[in-house]
Amino acid sequence: METLLLNPISLWLRWLFTKAVYLFKNRGKHLKIEYMVELSSCTFGSYNTIYKYTRLRNSTIDSFSYVARNTLVQHAKIGKFCCIGPHVSIGLGAHPSSQYVSSHPLFYSIIGQASGLTLVEKELFQEYQETIIENDVWIGAQVIIKSGVKIGNGAIIASGSVVTKDVEPYSVVGGVPAKFIKYRFAQEQITFLQKFKWWEQNLDWLKEHKDLFLDVDLLMKNLIVNSLDRKESYKTGTIGSQTIKGSIYSYLGIIIGFFSVTVLRSHGLGPEENGILDLILSFTMILAQLGSLGFFNASIRCFPYFRDETKNHNGFMFLLLAIPFVGLLLFTLLFYLGKSVLPVESNFTTLFQDYTPVILALTLGTVLFNALDTFNRTALLDAVTGSTLKEFVQKLTVAIAMGLMLYFTLPFPLFLWIWVLANLIPTVWIFIKLYRKKVFNLKPDFAFLNPEMVKMLSSVSLFAVLTGFTTMIIQYIDKIMINEMINTSLTGIYSITAFFGTVVLMPSRIMYRIGGIIIAEKWKVHDIDGIKSVYKKSCINQLLIAMLIFIGIWANIDNVFEMIPKEYEAGKYVILFISLSGLIEMATGFNGVIIATSKYYKYDTYFFLALIFITIATNYIFIPIWGITGSAMATALATLLFNFFRYLFLVIKFKMQPMGLNNLFILMIGLFTLFIIGYLPKQSFFVWDIILRSGIITLVYVSSIYVLKLAPEMNTIIDKYKTKLLS
């Protein structure tokens, strides 16, 4: 009987019948079955071809995959777009190699390989496990793949290889046994392909985009942009509303901060106490930046590779909290060691001894807030919540703390702890927000952290911590050096008056928070033209806003000192030079963000290190000559040189030249407005004088720019509101 079934005619008839059955079952799927193919318990997708003399058993083959001639496939699940070469064996049965006395199936199998004979009544060893071959896999000729192995997406198996263990996605393996040779693409390209899953697109989509498959970079630049643009359109739509909301809360925060400084701090605290407050804040910010180990700044650049909502962004929340916690612990120990070795004559000794608990509590809260805000900003695309909490809520709670001190005449040490609690309210707030959104997941994903990812995170974080530390040094070194070279009282005067100058820079905070996310995504897909466009717009729009604020501050400089005690008049020109520093920083746009999120991020660290040297050197030269004004002059000069070299770097490396005649004309209109407002007679009541001067400045400055069409986006906004008013 067996001879009859195995004769050529019977085999041919069986093949013909099997083929007819499978073609009928898969009608409309464009299945092609060649001569003498054996099929048993198999399922197919669409557009599959099984070439002659191939045997398939208990297997699934998804769309567009083919199996070449004389191949054996059993107990396998094969994905889409797989190319399986000739004479391949997939899913060969296993034999026991240890513990069992014999590897012969007579002792563990009921199949009866020895002429039907078996000594057991049930299976005692699993001979066949499911072999998984994912999508877009190429398997060369005469490859043998062990049962139970998983071949990742995009992998290539060299001809003649024997695969005995799992193969990573987009890796090339070969040999006996097969060993890793290389990855097909760079890690960021692999991450993209894994997330994009082009093989899940339909045939019409593939036809439309077929030309992009000739170059992975071309695919990333075009298709990912389109894919991410769906997220980007969400972001852009939300960012439009976020920017409006963020700006409203930022300016409300400026008003509260202005009231807090001019009325509460300047009248409720003496210059020395104001100096102590700012020194505590300075050391807190520096310690928090060091403790983060640069991971918060690095996250902006690296998070696009973690983004995957279905996998909780591959343990990103865990890293955001764990890495800074370790860093903060390390630097806290160094902080305590540093206290014991500080020279007795240093002003810092007393500060550390008296206020160590305050500094550490404030630092811990700041680091936790930064971690949660970074996740909220990058993973949830919410740039406004953190900004609102820091710029509005925190200023409001601090103002309330100041008011309590002024009303109840609290002792300074007690006020400090109330002030610390007021500063920590945003941290509690954002924690509750994330917890309610059910995204507070601390489960790590160490498997995602392959060597390439760890190398990228380590490298970016190292330079980010240096950059962040130097940023903090630059931001607070003036106060520290004034305290050391002059006294704490003048530090307080400098801090209060410098606040008015920093108002120029405040609008950039929400812009940088949003811009950093957009630019990082554009770098990921090599969208240089998009970055150039954002850079150019940032320069002209930020100059427009900064110039208006600068003119408003300096035109009302005498009115400022009507609101604060006379002893602060020593800081008049501090306001001028700090305002000028903010104007320079704003006018040069997103230069720092672009460099920090590019492959040349290390150079931004080098620029910052040079800036520290310039800042410290100029402070040492200028403070003995001009006092606190000299420190402000040093800040303005250092900011000018710093941004000039950033500007040159982007011109040389990327041919990004964002400046044009429109920028120059806006600057000239601003100076002209400031010139003519100087001839306006001063009003007897300073509030009316502020209103009159500010109104004239806005009218002359904004109307001139509008008529000359120097800022297209401003014209669009004004025209939009004009249409609404007239309709």
TrEMBL record:
It comes from the Bacteria. Its main location: membrane. CDD domains: LbH_XAT. The chain crosses the membrane at residues 248-267, 279-303, 315-335, 355-372, 392-410, 416-435, 456-477, 489-506, 539-557, 573-594, 606-626, 632-649, 661-680, 686-708. It is a multi-pass membrane protein. One of its GO terms (cellular component) is plasma membrane. This is Oligosaccharide flippase family protein. It comes from Pedobacter aquae. The lineage of its organism: Bacteria, Pseudomonadati, Bacteroidota, Sphingobacteriia, Sphingobacteriales.
